[in-house]
Design a protein that fits this description.
The complex is a heterodimer.
Chain A: E1 2-6, H1 13-20, E2 29-35, E3 40-45, H2 52-61, E4 67-68
Antiparallel strand pairs in A: 1-3, 1-4, 2-3
Chain B: H1 3-44, H2 55-82, H3 87-108, H4 124-133, H5 141-149, H6 156-168, H7 171-194, H8 201-229, H9 236-246, E1 255-259, E2 262-264, E3 267-271, E4 276-282, E5 291-294, E6 299-302, E7 307-313, E8 320-326, E9 333-339
Helix pairs in contact in B: 1-6, 1-7, 1-8, 2-5, 2-6, 2-7, 3-6, 3-8, 6-7
The chains are: A alpha+beta, B alpha+beta.
Chain lengths: 71, 341
């Protein structure tokens, strides 16, 4: 499953790299591509292993507040 | 930009700016080293105090980074030389660097979302590769590889310095400029990594502001340099130096003293409506003033360290002004054709 989030509190390109680092922390994530320019994060994940809420929670823990974009 | 300025820029804003982007790589290398040392210490059953060996990987990381960026500076300088930058091209390059820096400064202050487009973001595949490499590896290989890979994660100040290295048009100058800058960033990197402290978010915010202000100031300086090199009548530095020069008695004659502090007299009054020859006089002059640029006459010359070089100026109308500067846009000066024949 692919889900796009807006992340309004990214302040520099390093934030995008921080968020992309979650792909190594969260079981079930295939890839995370974050863009500071667009303030977005695209997550490809296995919905049988992970929920959108868990992704949001993991991002909260490293200081970001993503909001899912309605499909 | 001279090497001392590059060093100080690295020591202050360069170090702070790059820590945010590259510091993570270094600390994750260290975390791995500490884990390894901890395992070895616990396994040995030693009762002595645990002391991880972190100085060596930090130094290896910084050394690899220094070498990589020096080579990059050499390549950028070579590229600038191949391009054979004319004063106008240099002026345009300085403008571009200045606007890039001002854009990044305004982005850091979050003035408008459009300024986010001034950022050069490395592709996700590259940052993913670097991130994964930083989590595993041996004690020698990883710091050296990660130090080299910082080439692909330059911060805004480093990017501006890279553009300046390109503008030097000299492989040696480009290499020395990047060497000085990266050397300047090293003490802060070493200190922060060695004491294994992480910048708190409040501190980081203040550092970001300092970097943003410096980027704005440096950006304005670069735009000012571009104005001087293009022979434009107005620039901040030209206005200041010419106002100062006009406060002195009018200087006449046919020679210009080229010194470490610029050209004297800064404003030379010459006869109008006749061809004149002036002499550039150097006396053990080592500064960039040796490389003189007169945009209106398309004259660009590197003067000998000590000697006299003649330059012919065709007849100019009364009241005409010909502006000149050094090839780095410093020491703006001018000839004024207002004397009777």
């Amino acid at each position: 499953m692919k889900k796009i989030f807006t992340v309004p509190d990214m302040t520099c390109p390093n934030c995008a790299m921080h968020l992309e680092g979650l792909e190594d922390e969260l079981a079930g994530v295939e890839s995370i591509t974050a863009s500071y320019k667009k303030l977005t994060m695209e997550v490809v994940f296995d919905e049988t292993k992970l929920t959108v809420e868990q992704i949001i929670e993991a991002a909260h823990e490293i200081g970001y507040h993503p909001e899912p974009v309605a499909a | 930009m001279n090497l001392f300025v590059a060093f100080i820029t690295g020591l202050t804003t360069g170090g702070l700016g790059c820590l945010a982007v590259q510091g993570g790589l270094l600390t994750s290398t260290l975390a791995h080293q500490i884990e390894q040392d901890m395992l070895a210490h616990n396994g040995s059953g030693s009762t002595s105090k645990f002391k991880p060996h972190i100085a060596q990987p930090i130094l290896l990381f910084l050394l690899a980074k220094l070498i990589a960026y020096t080579i990059l500076g050499y390549l950028l300088g070579s590229l600038g030389m191949v391009l054979q930058l004319t004063p106008l091209m240099s002026a345009i390059l300085y403008f571009a660097i200045g606007i890039f820096m001002i854009g990044n400064g305004l982005r850091m202050f979050n003035v408008h979302p459009i300024f986010r487009f001034f950022v050069i973001e490395p592709p996700s595949s590259l940052t993913r590769y670097i991130r994964r490499k930083s989590k595993n590896g041996t004690s020698f290989f990883t710091p050296i590889l990660l130090g080299t890979l910082t080439l692909f994660l330059p911060c805004g100040v480093t990017q501006a310095m890279m553009a300046t290295a390109l503008g030097t048009g000299s492989p040696t100058q480009g290499a020395m400029l990047m060497f000085s800058f990266i050397l300047g960033t090293s003490p802060l990197f070493f200190s922060v990594a060695y004491f294994a402290t992480r910048l708190g978010s409040a501190m980081e915010k203040n550092f970001t502001r300092i970097v943003a202000v410096t980027m704005l100031i440096m950006g304005l300086v670069q735009v000012d340099t571009g104005l001087n090199l293009s022979g434009a009548p107005f620039s901040i530095s030209r206005t200041i130096s010419i106002v100062q020069a006009y406060a002195l008695p009018a200087q006449t004659g046919t020679s210009i003293e080229v010194t470490e502090n610029g050209y004297f007299p800064q404003v030379l009054h010459l006869p109008a409506n006749q061809e004149v020859s002036i002499e550039w006089v150097t006396r053990n002059t080592q500064a960039c003033s040796r490389s003189v640029v007169v945009p209106d006459l398309e004259y660009q010359k590197i003067l000998p360290t000590t000697g006299r070089v003649t330059m012919d100026i065709p007849a100019q109308e009364k009241g005409a002004i010909i502006r000149y500067t050094c090839s780095m846009g410093m020491y703006p000066s001018q000839f004024v054709f207002d004397l009777e024949e």
